């Protein structure tokens, strides 16, 4: 439906709307920059934004990608699509008290499509989509900046005009090559920010289309306003920040469409000036459109709240230490310091880090801290800009500064800690949208300098230099995001006090088998944060494997003392206590772990090993059976059941368990080997042979496989084949227990047969 106004005010609005280009100064007049046709400008921006991040296309899954993608069951085909609407970004139920409450079902849906199209977890497809999204957003920025910097005007044919082609190109290039965007583009989890930004911009452009005059002469289209609200809702379903576009659309409507002077309006409202009624400033459909925007936003937030089910997520002090400070003064000072650091990242994006928590930024606890200067500088600049935006006699200047500040501040509000506690100190990804405001302010500042400068070419070269430096920084930072090792190590120089950085470097080294180096970083993580239970757990695990059991026990005991519900630490403590032959304590630790995590197959597996060591065979079998019920592909638990039943002479039961296991895990060569041993003892030689050969094909370098197949042939009377496999086994492992003795027995038997034959 089209909202119709047949009065003089509507006519004057239309006329004023079409005179905008003539009545307002042109920003491009003072900007010394390249002027390109619209098509070529978009091609240039697309190409440069692509080249910035192209070297990230074949990167790995890094950091949060593991939890959001690899370990997220919502990506797999067996998970019903409907579950996506009731799960958070990480695949947990939103109703759960442990849920992160980040509701981004459309982003998860794109991950799922990526996964299904690629046929598995192959990161290239995920990275390519992220790069394409950033290129698309950067191109859309030309249209957005042309409106924000040049105003909104349409031709007689209803086509929107770009009144600031040079300025909009410069601002779009600044956005395209800003290094702070690297986390969103090169980190796959950043897809949420990219999709949110895409629909955020489409919502804004859709709102602008509402004011395109049609043939009937109507002033605005309700349909396009509603489309804008829907696109804002879609943006929020990609990431929570998306809802802020509705507020920005309202600000744009007031400033650009209705040309309201905020300071003058406030003064008239305070003095109850009757001229306000005659001015008609608030009656040109503005109140109706704002009502639509507010109603849409409130409805979206209500639905979001109902789906979330419970209160806000529970974060820990290490995630956001300032929010846990007892003093309101300390909280306020540190929040403002965080804002100043975000502003600095926009101005000078040189020191970038994947994580800014865990001591990376120590708390400011008194006004004597020199860092107070940073937040004082921030507010000095902001107040100066706000005063200019409100008080300047130049309406063009007021409009651009207000829009620039609006796009800088409003999208950042959900991350500001003002409305609710957030789970981070600084996150570069949340500056993706606010950087639009930065680009507006930078471009406007450049135009003012160009107006004053005598040598405009030197200024243009300086801006080109900034773009080039940012481009190179993007390329360098993208290469660091290609692998976890490079990403984590790059953070050591930026945040040396961040315990999580040292933890992640250590974890990466441990995963690669470099335990000695990993220990060093885990120890440093624990030193920096003495309550870092995950670092203690991982360090305890390594020390356990190195048989340094005493220190391992001390670390794991401390971890469960700090966090009594840390199930993994309880299980690892049980393993250490079992190794120290303190069996009762080990059993108690295992059951404590299971109490805190009821579905814990690995703990049941280790509990079964404890019972096997104590010759409590029935309890061991029950524990391993529980492990396989919880995790049917738990190969070790199946194997141990087969071996225990085999060793206790229960061959029929061992055979039944082995066949059941192979039905569930048909390609597991260790299960084939264990079942083949059982079948051989049951004199089912043919079937046993087939399984041995299949296991050897899957793992040809296992000496025990060849040795046991040789024993089978030996029993079966196939002595030549027995000799062959004994020799292969001894070649692979000359010290293989029992194989040499069996081989010598076979040789003597063959010699005796040769003598008899002779």
- In percent terms, what proportion of residues is strand? under 5%
- Main beta sheet: 2 strands, antiparallel
Query: Strands across the major sheet, in which order?
Result: 1-2
The helical percent reads 55-70%
Radius of gyration, in angstroms, nearest whole number: 34 Å
Outline: elongated
Distance between the termini: 108 Å
Can you tell me the residue ranges where pLDDT is under 50 for at least 5 consecutive residues? 1-23, 214-218
Mean pLDDT: 88
Secondary-structure content class:
mainly alpha
**Count of DSSP strands:** 2
DSSP helix count?
35
Give a topology summary.
Layout (H helix, E strand, L loop, with lengths): L1 E2 L4 H11 L1 H4 L14 H16 L11 H6 L34 H14 L4 H28 L14 H12 L5 H5 L4 H19 L10 E2 H17 L5 H14 L4 H10 L3 H5 L6 H23 L19 H20 L24 H20 L3 H15 L25 H18 L3 H25 L3 H11 L4 H13 L3 H14 L4 H13 L3 H14 L4 H13 L3 H14 L4 H13 L3 H14 L4 H13 L3 H14 L4 H13 L3 H14 L4 H14 L2 H14 L6 H19 L1
Antiparallel strand pairs: 1-2
Explain what you see:
- This protein has 758 residues and is mainly α.
- Among the domains are: 37-308, no CATH class; 321-454, no CATH class.
- It has helices at residues 8-18, 20-23, 38-53, 65-70, 105-118, 123-150, 165-176, 182-186, 191-209, 222-238, 244-257, 262-271, 275-279, 286-308, 328-347, 372-391, 395-409, 435-452, 456-480, 484-494, 499-511, 515-528, 533-545, 549-562, 567-579, 583-596, 601-613, 617-630, 635-647, 651-664, 669-681, 685-698, 703-716, 719-732, 739-757, and strands at residues 2-3, 220-221.
- A two-stranded antiparallel ribbon has the order 1-2.
- The longest helix is centred in the N-terminal third of the chain and has 28 residues, at 123-150.
């Amino acid at each position: 439906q089209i909202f119709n106004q047949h009065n003089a005010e509507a006519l004057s609005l239309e006329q004023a709307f079409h005179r905008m280009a003539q009545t307002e100064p042109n920003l491009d007049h003072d900007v010394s920059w390249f002027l390109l046709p619209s098509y070529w400008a978009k091609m240039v921006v697309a190409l440069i934004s692509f080249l910035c991040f192209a070297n990230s296309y074949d990167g790995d899954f890094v950091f949060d990608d593991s939890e959001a993608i690899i370990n997220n069951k919502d990506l797999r085909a067996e998970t019903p699509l409907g579950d996506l609407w009731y799960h958070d970004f990480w695949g947990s139920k939103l109703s759960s008290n442990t849920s992160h409450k980040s509701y981004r079902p459309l982003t998860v849906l794109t991950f799922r499509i990526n996964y299904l199209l690629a046929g598995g977890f192959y990161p290239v497809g995920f990275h390519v989509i992220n790069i394409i999204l950033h290129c698309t957003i950067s191109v859309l920025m030309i249209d957005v900046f042309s409106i924000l910097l040049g105003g909104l005007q349409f031709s007689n044919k209803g086509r929107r005009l770009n009144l600031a082609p040079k300025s909009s190109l410069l601002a779009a290039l600044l956005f395209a090559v800003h290094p702070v965007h690297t986390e969103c583009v090169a980190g796959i989890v950043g897809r949420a920010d990219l999709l949110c930004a895409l629909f955020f911009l489409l919502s804004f452009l859709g709102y602008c289309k509402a004011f395109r005059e049609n043939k009937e002469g109507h002033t605005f289209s309700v349909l396009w306003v509603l489309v804008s609200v829907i696109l804002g809702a879609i943006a929020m379903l990609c990431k929570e920040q998306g809802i802020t576009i509705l507020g920005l659309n309202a600000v744009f409507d007031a400033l650009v469409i209705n040309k309201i002077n905020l300071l003058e309006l406030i003064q008239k409202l305070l003095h109850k000036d009757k001229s306000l009624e005659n001015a008609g400033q608030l009656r040109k459909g503005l109140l109706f459109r704002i009502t639509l925007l507010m109603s849409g936003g409130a409805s979206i937030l209500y639905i979001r709240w109902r789906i979330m089910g419970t209160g806000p997520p529970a974060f820990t002090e290490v995630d956001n230490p300032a929010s846990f400070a007892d003093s309101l003064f300390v909280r306020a000072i540190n929040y403002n310091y965080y804002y100043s650091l975000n502003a600095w990242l926009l101005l000078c994006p040189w020191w970038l880090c994947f994580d800014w928590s865990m001591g990376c930024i120590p708390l400011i606890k008194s006004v004597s801290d020199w860092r107070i200067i940073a937040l004082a500088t921030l507010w000095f600049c902001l107040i100066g800009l706000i005063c200019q935006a409100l008080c300047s006699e130049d309406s063009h200047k007021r409009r651009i500064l207000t829009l620039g500040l609006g796009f800088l501040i409003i999208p950042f509000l959900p991350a500001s800690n003002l409305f609710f506690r957030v789970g981070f100190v600084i996150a570069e990804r949340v500056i993706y949208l606010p950087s639009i405001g930065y680009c507006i302010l930078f471009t406007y500042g450049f135009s003012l300098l160009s107006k004053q400068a005598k040598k405009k070419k030197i200024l243009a070269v300086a801006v080109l230099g900034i773009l080039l430096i940012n481009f190179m920084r993007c390329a360098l930072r993208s290469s660091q995001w290609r692998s976890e090792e490079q990403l984590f190590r790059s953070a050591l120089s930026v945040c040396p006090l961040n315990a999580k950085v040292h933890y992640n470097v250590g974890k990466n080294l441990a995963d690669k088998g470099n335990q000695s180096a990993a220990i060093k970083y885990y120890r440093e993580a624990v030193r920096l944060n003495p309550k870092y239970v995950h670092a203690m757990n991982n360090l305890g695990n390594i020390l356990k494997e190195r048989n340094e059991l005493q220190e391992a026990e001390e670390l794991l005991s401390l971890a469960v003392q700090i966090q009594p519900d840390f199930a993994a630490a309880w299980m690892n403590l049980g393993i250490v206590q079992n190794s120290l032959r303190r069996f009762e304590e080990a059993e108690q630790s295992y059951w404590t772990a299971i109490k805190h995590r009821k579905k814990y197959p690995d703990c049941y597996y280790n509990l079964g090993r404890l019972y096997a060591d104590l010759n409590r065979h029935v309890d061991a079998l029950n524990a391993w059976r529980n492990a396989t019920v919880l995790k049917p592909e738990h190969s070790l638990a199946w194997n141990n059941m087969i071996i225990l039943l085999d060793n206790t002479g229960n061959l029929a039961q061992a055979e039944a368990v082995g066949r059941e296991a192979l039905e569930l895990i048909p390609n597991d060569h260790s299960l084939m080997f264990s079942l083949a041993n059982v079948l051989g003892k049951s004199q089912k030689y043919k079937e046993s042979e087939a399984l041995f050969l299949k296991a050897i094909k899957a793992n040809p370098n296992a000496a025990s496989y060849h040795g046991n197949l040789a024993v089978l042939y030996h029993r079966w009377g196939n002595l030549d084949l027995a000799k062959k496999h004994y020799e292969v086994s001894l070649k692979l492992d000359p010290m293989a227990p029992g194989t040499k003795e069996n081989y010598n027995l076979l040789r003597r038997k063959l010699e005796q047969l040769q003598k008899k034959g002779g």
